[in-house]
From TrEMBL:
<dbReference type="InterPro" id="IPR041617">
    <property type="entry name" value="TPR_MalT"/>
</dbReference>
<dbReference type="Pfam" id="PF00196">
    <property type="entry name" value="GerE"/>
</dbReference>
<dbReference type="InterPro" id="IPR016032">
    <property type="entry name" value="Sig_transdc_resp-reg_C-effctor"/>
</dbReference>
<dbReference type="Pfam" id="PF17874">
    <property type="entry name" value="TPR_MalT"/>
</dbReference>
<dbReference type="InterPro" id="IPR036388">
    <property type="entry name" value="WH-like_DNA-bd_sf"/>
</dbReference>
<keyword id="KW-0238">DNA-binding</keyword>
<dbReference type="GO" id="GO:0003677">
    <property type="term" value="F:DNA binding"/>
</dbReference>
<dbReference type="InterPro" id="IPR011990">
    <property type="entry name" value="TPR-like_helical_dom_sf"/>
</dbReference>
<dbReference type="InterPro" id="IPR000792">
    <property type="entry name" value="Tscrpt_reg_LuxR_C"/>
</dbReference>
<dbReference type="Pfam" id="PF25873">
    <property type="entry name" value="WHD_MalT"/>
</dbReference>
<keyword id="KW-0805">Transcription regulation</keyword>
<feature type="domain" description="HTH luxR-type">
    <location>
        <begin position="850"/>
        <end position="915"/>
    </location>
</feature>
<dbReference type="InterPro" id="IPR027417">
    <property type="entry name" value="P-loop_NTPase"/>
</dbReference>
<dbReference type="InterPro" id="IPR059106">
    <property type="entry name" value="WHD_MalT"/>
</dbReference>
<protein>
    <submittedName>
        <fullName>LuxR family transcriptional regulator</fullName>
    </submittedName>
</protein>
<dbReference type="GO" id="GO:0006355">
    <property type="term" value="P:regulation of DNA-templated transcription"/>
</dbReference>
<keyword id="KW-0804">Transcription</keyword>
């Protein structure tokens, strides 16, 4: 889990001397009609103070206001998202835990997927939400800017985002401005006007100034609130206030420099020293400051522990010296950014580099002692204390990636001299792992070589434990596995994978899981399905043992589709069910990360058996768990939905889903999905007799080769819909022209399994089935091949390919039955050709056939309709589905509209007539 500082989620406490500014509050209130409010002004214009004060009134209009104070350590998408989740406490805890597990999973996911999940949850939350990002100018990570763009573009109607910054962020402001999505408050909006300046100086700061002096100060500071504040502090400390005003007006120096110099120089020496030394800290508490200034106090901060520095901080706050409390207990504070910048400049100008480094080392040591590794490493790097950095990173190694995120490590590691990597293998392995994540083959190879040299040096040390050396060797082999996968060297993947599993200790389950998964991909590419099954099974087990159910679910799906490639549907279905049950035993939430994947596979595999009573509820569970932002998973959901619609005879609905999926796949450039969709559409066109259109699709697909061999689900679909579609088109075309020679040539080809990738070889059942059909169409005896196909289908109860073969197969089965050569399973298949049985009444929680309604119900609406039929109240439905009551009402209104009814009773009756519910 990513460690978080709670004070970043709390707005600073309001100071008693804060000036109320109803004029600006009203501007902000009006600005919130837009999706994004950008507050852009230099330091000292009161951006944070404005937001803190507005929140007191804003909570009366907005149900929830989430606050996040940003700093440079937040330039990591996982870290920022984790904080955002914590800020949005109006999202139910169960859903936030699901998203938290998603970002903590050791897997590369598109950040837009996380934000899409978050937006879906926000859309279902009752009430309105405002999200505040303070100090956004400290964010420089491009991935975060892209994610925020996505967030603003898709904000639900009752959500707003406020960004406070010193400069315009690299976001599409012009586009949002043109569309009315952006409102702005800038420095001229925040500057004090004459009335506010007079109130502040005369009433808040209690200075006896004349109207002319106030006007002079306002003009010299140009209404800059911090400038007026500094001027007031200077005036309070000088007996001759007119002289100060004259000096300020006459001075050519920058007003902040002048005023801070004046205020600072009049402070007692102990406060000056304290302010300078602690200016290196982004956040301050008594014990931390004690450590930095040399008064060592290792206890954790608390109100009862009034350390020396805690007392000094209280004194600074009383003197109104730009110190903001970050919590109600006055434990954590921060300096005003402007004040901190000036203090840091004075510290560096008046101190040696060694002294400043010492302060950072002390801060880093305190943070490390209190388990705040991100802050500890940041300070150690500023101190150039490389040994300290190494000491913190080295023991954790690759596990650090999931703790702080790849982006943070990419900032840290280049600051470490290369010589340090030569003697610390885990640091070199971190660099190598990040290089593989970036597909940088040469860089990965370089850092692997560095790790090898470093490991050789460590292994020769007498004090190094045997267990540590073994784990290091295993980690090195694990990174070599990743590099070999990038290079397409499956032999090397297998060799290094075996080495890694032999060396890695049993408790290093997360890495063992990754290695096992990679081994499975390599075995699959080599068509060694038995070993691929074993590897994916081990990966799934290790994932659960390592506390990574999301990754385990992914491995289970790989395992299930590898079984399916071998024709073992029963075992594949059992594997999915076992994983679902195991996940639900650990976490009862049916919306937890990853659970939609085995549900989706379960639906797909039941569909091959035409077991719609099992397929359709599982499909509904998958749709509920998988959101549209999860690109690959959502595309898989659309593929399975189309496959099941086709199996139920709803080819129009299947084609609509295929086109929807193709649009998304093109947007996201998911090549293998586009290929599968082309094949699936071609098969449907063949069934409809549209051979020219199908042939064109398949011809186009041949010009766009796609890699399938590393993905079990992709390989399975490719075989089902690309390879098989090619044979089906040849069969249908030859049959249409009564081309006996072509039919016999096809039958002969199907008798010999081709060489090549696993997906290029038809399943034995499909080969026998198509061969029998080809021979029969040529006027030859295809019964032996057909009986072979039936034998292969019997134990696994496979149905779909037979029914999809249509009338020619029905004729063959009827002829075999007349000769009493048809097996009981063949008789069962023959019975399914009754039209009423091909598309039975749809059970609950399933998508309605597209032809049944002009505007079909969604899966969620069908689930609500089923619960209505059970007599559940709106509150009971909301509790069952973990959604707001208002959302239930919206679903019910939509159901009434689509069904053309006006009451619950009418809706249930109409739903039953349409086969939507039992």
């Amino acid at each position: 889990m990513i460690p978080l500082m709670r004070t970043k989620l709390q707005p600073p406490e309001v100071r008693p001397s804060l000036l109320a500014r109803p004029r600006v509050y009203e501007q902000l209130r009006n600005a919130l009609h837009s999706r994004l409010v950008l507050i852009n002004a230099p330091a000292g214009y009161g951006k944070t103070s404005l937001l803190v004060e507005w929140m007191q009134e804003g909570r009366k209009e907005w149900s929830h206001i989430g606050w996040l104070s940003l700093d440079t350590t937040d330039n990591d998408i996982r870290r920022l998202f984790a904080y955002l989740l914590e800020a949005l406490t109006n999202i139910p805890l169960e859903r936030r835990e699901r998203l938290r597990a998603l970002i903590s999973a050791e897997v590369d996911l598109d950040a837009e997927q996380w934000f899409a999940e978050l937006l879906n949850d926000l859309a279902e939350v009752a009430g309105s939400t405002v999200i505040i990002f303070d100090d956004y100018h400290l964010i420089s990570d491009g991935q975060i800017h892209q994610a925020i763009t996505f967030l603003v573009d898709h904000l639900p109607p009752r959500c707003r985002l406020i960004i406070a910054t010193r400069s315009d962020p690299p976001l599409p402001l012009a586009r949002w401005r043109a569309r009315g999505h952006l409102a702005e408050l800038r420095s001229f909006d925040l500057a004090f006007n004459p009335e506010e300046a007079a109130t502040f100086l005369l009433e808040v700061m209690e200075l006896p100034l004349s109207r002319d002096q106030i006007v002079a100060l306002l003009e010299s500071t140009e209404g800059w609130p911090a400038g007026l504040h500094l001027a007031a502090l200077a005036l309070r400390s000088r007996p001759n206030q007119s002289e100060v005003v004259d000096e300020l007006i006459a001075s050519n120096r920058y007003v902040a420099d002048y005023l801070i110099e004046d205020v600072f120089s009049r402070l007692p020496a102990h406060l000056q020293q304290f302010l300078l030394q602690t200016s290196i800290l982004d956040r301050l508490c008594g014990p931390l400051c004690d450590a930095v200034i040399g008064v060592y106090e290792q206890s954790a901060p608390s109100k009862s522990n009034q350390s020396y520095s805690q007392l000094v901080l209280a004194e600074i706050e009383r003197n109104n010296l730009f110190l903001f409390p970050l919590d109600a207990e006055r434990v954590w504070y921060r300096y005003h950014h402007l004040f901190a910048d000036v203090l840091q400049d004075r510290l560096e100008a008046g101190s040696t580099a060694e002294h400043v480094a010492m302060l950072h080392r002390r801060a880093g040591a305190w943070y490390a002692a209190h388990g705040m590794l991100t802050q500890a490493v940041n300070h150690a790097l500023r101190a150039q204390a490389i040994d300290d950095v190494v000491a913190m990173l080295e023991p954790i190694g690759l596990a650090f990636i999931s703790q702080v995120g790849e982006a943070t490590l990419r900032r840290w590691l280049p600051e470490i001299p290369e010589a340090a990597f030569e003697s610390h293998p885990r640091l070199a392995l971190l660099r190598a792992w990040l290089a593989t994540a970036d597909y940088q083959v040469e860089d990965a190879a370089h850092w692997i070589a560095v790790a090898e040299r470093a490991l050789a040096g460590v292994a020769s040390g007498a004090a190094t434990s045997i267990g540590l050396i073994a784990n290091l060797r295993g980690e090195l082999s694990a990174v070599r596995v990743r590099l070999a996968l990038l290079q397409g060297d499956t032999e090397q993947v297998i060799h290094e994978g075996k080495q890694a599993l032999a060396w890695l200790q049993a408790d290093n389950q997360a890495l063992r899981m990754r290695v096992a998964k990679d081994l499975g991909y390599a075995y699959l590419a080599q068509r060694d399905l038995a070993r691929a099954e074993q590897a994916f099974s081990e990966a799934s087990i290790n994932g659960f043992n390592a506390g990574l159910p999301y990754i385990s679910a992914m491995a289970t799906v790989d395992y299930a589709y590898t079984l399916a490639l071998r024709g073992s549907l029963g075992a594949a279905i059992s594997a999915c069910r076992d994983t679902i049950n195991q996940m639900l035993r650990r976490n009862r939430s049916r919306a937890q990360p990853g659970i939609g994947l085995p549900f989706l596979a379960l639906a797909d595999l039941h569909g091959l058996r035409h077991e719609f009573a099992g397929a359709l509820p599982a499909l509904a569970e998958a749709e509920s768990a998988i959101k549209s932002g999860q690109t690959t998973s959502y595309l898989n959901l659309l593929i399975v939905t189309a496959r099941i619609a086709r199996a139920r005879g709803d080819t129009d609905g299947a084609l609509r889903i295929i086109r929807q999926a193709r649009f998304l796949a093109r947007q996201r450039n998911v090549g293998w999905v586009l290929a599968v969709l082309d094949g699936l559409e071609a098969q449907i066109l063949i069934e409809r007799g549209e051979l020219d259109a199908a042939g064109q699709l398949l011809d186009d697909r041949l010009l766009k080769p796609v890699e399938f061999r590393y993905m079990p689900v992709a390989a399975f679909y490719a075989r089902e819909h690309i390879t098989r579609a090619g044979y089906e088109w040849r069969l249908a075309s030859a049959r249409a022209t009564s081309d006996g020679e072509a039919l016999r040539a096809l039958a002969a080809e199907l008798a010999q399994p081709p060489n090549g990738e696993i997906w290029q070889a038809l399943a034995p059942l499909d080969a026998a089935l198509l061969r029998g059909l080809a021979l029969a169409a040529a006027g030859d005896d295809g019964n032996e091949a057909m009986l072979t196909a039936l034998d292969l289908a019997t134990s696994e109860r496979i149905v779909a390919p037979f029914l999809q073969a249509g009338a020619p197969l029905r004729l063959m089965l009827s002829q075999l039955a007349a000769r009493q050569q048809l097996s009981p399973y063949g008789e069962y298949l023959l019975s399914l050709f009754d039209d009423d049985e091909i598309a039975p009444a749809m059970p609950a929680s399933t998508p309605a056939p597209a032809t049944a309604l002009p505007d079909p119900l969604s899966l969620r609406e069908i689930e609500v309709l089923r619960l209505m039929a059970e007599g559940r109240s709106n509150h009971e439905i909301a509790a069952t589905l973990v959604i707001a009551v208002s959302t239930v009402k919206s679903h019910i209104n939509s159901i009434f509209s689509k069904l053309g009814v006006a009451s619950r009773t009418q809706a249930v009756a109409r739903g039953r007539r349409l086969g939507l519910i039992p």
